[in-house]
Amino acid sequence: MDTPDTSIGFGELGLSPAIAQAVQALGYESPTAIQSQCIPHLLAGRDLLGQAQTGTGKTAAFALPLLSRIDPDLRRPQVLVLAPTRELALQVAEAFQQYASHLQGFNVLPIYGGQSYGLQLTQLKRNPQVIVGTPGRVMDHIRRGTLSMESIRTLVLDEADEMLNMGFAEDIDWIFDQAPEKRQVALFSATMPPAIRKVAQERLVDPIEVRIAADSETVDTIDQHHCVVTRFHKLDTLTRILELEPFDGMLVFVRTKNQTTELADKLKAHGFAAEPLNGDMNQEMRERTVDRIKQGQLDILVATDVAARGLDVERISHVVNYDIPTDPSAYVHRIGRTGRAGRTGRAILLVEPRERGLLKAIERTIRRRVPPMDPPSAAALSESRIDRFIAEVQKTMAEQDLDFFYRLLARIGQEQEIEMMDVAASLAYLYQRERPLNVKEDPPRPARREWSEKRPERGRRGEGQDDRPPRRERGQGRTGNENLVSYRIEVGYQHGVSPREIVGAIANESGLEGRFIGRIEIQDDHSIVDLPDGMPHEVFNHLKRVYVRGQALRISSAAEGGQSRASWEPRKESGAPRFGRGGQDRSKPARQPGGFRRQGGEGGGSRKPFQAKDSKGVRGDRAPGRKPRD
């Protein structure tokens, strides 16, 4: 069983300085198992056959070493990554761009079916060093002579088993035949059926084989649950859990060092005894913090995976995964901080709607279901606070000398002619101003697909229905819903925005399923977007602060802008598409306000935008036997 080697960091893997700098800026502390095992071999130029499940960090496992070997001065394609779907191609391309943020002169280009050839041709003329594409469109460009394979040094097949399941075997063979004879090949697959073994035998030369086995070992004494919650309601959900869960000591896991400090500060502001535990702390500070929780001076530690390594504190009865781990094996290590030595423990996993795919990967890894739990309700929180208030009153009456206060209240009653019940009610109100006893609002439940409507019923496949979303027409959303409201966002053509980026940002940040987004009209300095009526106030406020192409959306009602709908004419001279099918941006850690979000995981394979693939990674909109389209 392969496990992450947490004794080494990214700085010890031999990455180039520019790539190592980007990794550090992203806050990554240590490589996952597949990263630590793949990066050295790919840096050395070896062919590699990697088997790993979704969510193990395999994109970084090949992107980081290949970027370290890129020649930024050579303005020709040097790396070709083949992906089964346009969504995965976009995701991988965005990851490359993120990891190469400090690499001067670098360009990456995703190419896939459904996008304008003209736009792709223009971008190909810029000679990007990395091409990420679906097999069909890559073949088209090679045949047209618009994509040269002469300088390709490395070929990567990502999710190879899915590509073969979708019928791309002949396409992949043809692309291999066009590549230089001397090239590096990296093949990644979640499973290793005979067809994948055959490709490896025929196309890889003396490959290194890396297999990240599923870790099915879980601690039986740990009670595990998950709670689906939107990103900007995670803190509220966590504080409610802290109030309602009877715990002794708690370990809260986040992804980065900065988040440990930020979350610990927020918890302290809510009155909880919390401190961060991260890799920036020296040994003395770490030991002092751990001693404080052992002695009961602290109740909560907010930690990263690396900082919690080897932590064994008997008081830790609960582990909360505030950020879901991208490596399923890390989940096992995290929850193992409780329930040790036969003790009972409880683990709670907060899952953003877009992260359901990672939850599925964890469940496959541990070979058991992590049952759901509802976010703590306002009614339950109110009842808990009232019970504590009554208990404090009773304890005070039993333990304290209250003679002075009896005389004081009697004086208030006589002089002010106020009933004692009125005095008591006023004092109770003053007591609870910081933390109200009567909690009135629940966090939004991320179950709906639209602000005010349930997702419409769909017929079964194979009954003559076209499962593709209808084409967007002027003033009409994808569902044909007429109950739409126009909004203005402050990003337009001059910022280089595309409809796909607008749809991706709004869907990712609001949780609204992409097919409910209506008309998009892009102007020079702003855009008009039609969205379902009834947008929650908190979602509206959050979208104001969302950035696209470096611009804050600053969303506002189009009616408030004083413009009539008739005056919103799309720009005609640029040749850019006026309406877009949309896409998704999964490389960004998204926030899920409002809680209305599609399911999805790494790869996302579907022809329909924002439709998650099934557990086998097969695109849900393709009937068996149909020829796949990229």
TrEMBL record:
This is ATP-dependent RNA helicase DeaD. HAMAP family: DEAD_helicase_DeaD. The keyword Translocase does not apply. Keywords: ATP-binding, Cytoplasm, Helicase, Hydrolase, Nucleotide-binding, RNA-binding, Stress response. Its EC number is 3.6.4.13. Belongs to the DEAD box helicase family. DeaD/CsdA subfamily. PROSITE patterns: DEAD_ATP_HELICASE, HELICASE_ATP_BIND_1, HELICASE_CTER, Q_MOTIF. Residues 39-210 form the Helicase ATP-binding domain. Residues 597-606 have a biased composition (Gly residues). It is an enzyme of class 3 (hydrolase). It comes from Imhoffiella purpurea. Residues 234-382 form the Helicase C-terminal domain. Residues 438-476, 611-624 have a biased composition (Basic and acidic residues). GO terms for biological process: cellular response to cold; ribosomal large subunit assembly; RNA catabolic process. A motif (Q motif) lies at residues 8-36. GO terms for molecular function: ATP binding; ATP hydrolysis activity; RNA helicase activity; RNA strand annealing activity. One of its GO terms (cellular component) is ribosome. Residues 8-36 form the DEAD-box RNA helicase Q domain. It catalyses: ATP + H2O = ADP + phosphate + H(+). DEAD-box RNA helicase involved in various cellular processes at low temperature, including ribosome biogenesis, mRNA degradation and translation initiation. It is found in: Cytoplasm. Residues 438-485, 557-630 are annotated as: Disordered.
